[in-house]
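Run: sequence + glycylglycylglycine -> complex structure.
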Amino acid sequence: MRKYKIAVIPGDGIGVDVINEGLKILETAKELHGGFDFEYTHLPWGCEYYKKTGRMMPEDGLRILKDHEAIYLGAVGFPGVPDHVSLWGLLLPIRKEFDEYINLRPIKLLKGIQGPLRKGPEDIDFVVVRENVEGEYSGVGGLAYQGTASEIALQTNVFTRFGTERVMRYAFELARKRKKKLISATKSNALNYSMVFWDRVFNEVAKDYQDVQTQVMHVDALSGYFILHPERIDVVVASNLFGDILTDLGSAMQGSIGIAPGANINPERKYPSMFEPVHGSAPDVAGKGIANPIGAIWAASMMLDFLGVPEAAKLIFDAMEAVTEEGKYLTVDLGGNSTTQEVGEAIRNKMRE
Ligand code: GGG
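>> structure
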């Protein structure tokens, strides 16, 4: 029996509710599929932990996580702790330390969900490959002359050849397995060093993938293209910031940010990869039991796929989509009135059918 060591960090706000449902789904998948088991390490890290200790995770937190095959994360951030402190205290160090340089975010309209565009599930089905450890989120910068009229803030974008090339290659390989179409999100007309470099590396790597049809689009124009012609999109490769923004737009196209999953992957499997819903902790909804668990459940499905049990991943995905298609159990963000637990239970029941 294969046993997977999973570190579970529900984090803050609705993270706790949705990860709870995700864990129940994982248990059902294990029971129905058979042949694998989980060993969970439950880690109560996040803003509450910060309020008690002054840290989002213990000093040896990354060492503790390293001993796992995957990390299942809910959400980070809560009033009382500045957002940049919570993000840089937990989520971003994990991505960087474990070289999770691919952030994979499927933008797929599930059956039964209307979405804000007049498009069907066959029209919205693409993937954004976001560079996840450098670029605009490299954390390099500084403040000077604070509190004076001359105050300045610098935030440096770091694009390395190594980091840029590897994310491009990953995106080309993914496109090869799909419809062989890849769009690179750029802004090289204004960002005359970083994005000119990004374009140059993209065009160089493209020479090794002549079978993949490529397009280079400025990120502002690409945002409009998402809305107007999603059916023409297959795979998008984007820098850290552009990918973050584009995938929030994509999640709205999916009908709700509550649905969207994300996988932070170290493709070499040298370190644990991390799976999370795209949404944050939503303090306004926290504790009400109405958060949509689908993003977290879909992330659990992506985790099983990554761990090497694609049939169990598909069992979860199909059940999830059967529930949205039926439309009987939906949370408030999708126009329903079901609770987080009711949606989770409906998905587990579908898995058993
Ligand atoms: N689900 C994890 C979470 O809380 N994400 C909120 C967030 O601000 N994420 C930023 C990012 O993905 O870079």
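>> summary
The chain is about 40% helix and 25% strand. Residues 14-33 form the longest helix (20 residues).
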